[in-house]
Amino acid sequence: MKTVLITGIGRRLGFFLAHQFVELGYQVIGQYRSEREDLAQLEALGVKLFQADFSQRQQLSDFCQQLQQFERMDVVLHNASTFIADQAEHSVAQQIELFDAMYMVHMLAPKLINESLYPALKRAQGCVVMMTDIYAEQPHAQFRSYCASKAGLANMLKSYATFWAPDVRVNGIAPGPMLFLDEHDQQHRQKVLAQTPLAKEGGLEPVWQAISLLVNNDYLTGCSIKVDGGRSLAQW
Fold first, then answer.
1. What Rg, from alpha-carbon coordinates, does the chain have?
2. Dihedral pair phi/psi, residue 169, rounded to 5°
3. pLDDT one-digit tens code per residue, 140-185
4. How many CB atoms lie within 10 A of CB 36?
5. Distance from CA of residue 107 to its chain's centroid?
6. Which of 35, 68, 92, 97 is most exposed, with minimal Cβ within 10 Å?
7. Span 105-128, mean pLDDT?
8. How far is it, in rounded angstroms, from Cα 160 to Cα 172?
9. Is 146 a catalytic site residue?
10. CA angle, 9 as apex, 61 and 41 as ends, to 5°?
11. CA-to-CA distance for 63 and 79, rounded, in angstroms?
């Protein structure tokens, strides 16, 4: 049985991907930050869950220690993310706290997880998929810390693709407007869609299709696929 690790499995894309891999017969391992009722549904499907807040160094360290129990890992999906705007009124201490959290979740956690699982990935001739963001190349001024950390992740995937070749492949997905959040009002939604050439909310299925390509095409490494309806072509 093949095995996949999905971080940020408790909601939205991670939750959706867990179901897709279960249907394919994978043993799914998942990390989540906080308890949610939906997690019981994943456990009922046989998903093995680990709680860890990646913004907390000790929890991240403990999680990576637990990963060493796995002798084989076919796919690693770095999906965990935190999306918070920078605020001009933040004190220096608040700025440090925010940037540390972005760095921990988007850069340090993927790096430590990669290093912890390398023997298992090499044994399986596996692959890693990093969820970056179209903002990594074209940053949003209100989300400076988020964009910088995602840009670091996008760079990291290239480093690992080179370092681990030919044993382990490393690629990325740069998503655009997949699913609006409940707090996004109609004005915001219309603005985003007006900036998106395909003029629609993508949903999660297109991301899954891209991930399937990266997992199954064994001649792809070091690449990042934009799944954004063309929004990265716009200026904001």
1. 17
2. -90, 145
3. 999 999 999 999 999 999 999 999 999 999 999 999 887 787 777 8
4. 14
5. 11
6. 92
7. 98
8. 11
9. yes
10. 125
11. 15
* Distance between CA atoms of residues 200 and 139, nearest Å: 21
Helices (H), 127-185: 144-164
| Cα(146)–Cα(180) distance, integer angstroms | 18
Structure tokens at 207: 């991301």
Q: Is 93 helix (H, G, I), strand (E, B) or coil?
A: helix
185-219 pLDDT, tens per residue? 888 788 888 889 998 888 999 999 999 999 999 99
Residue of 32, 118, 135, 146 marked catalytic? 146
Q: CA-to-CA distance for 161 and 172, rounded, in angstroms?
A: 10
Long-range pairs, 108-113, Cβ under 8 A, ≥24 = 108/54, 108/60, 109/7, 109/54, 109/60, 109/78, 109/80, 110/78, 110/153, 110/156, 111/156, 112/60, 112/61, 112/64, 113/5, 113/7, 113/63, 113/64, 113/67, 113/76, 113/78
Q: Which is nearest to 160 in space by CA: 99, 68, 224, 103?
A: 224
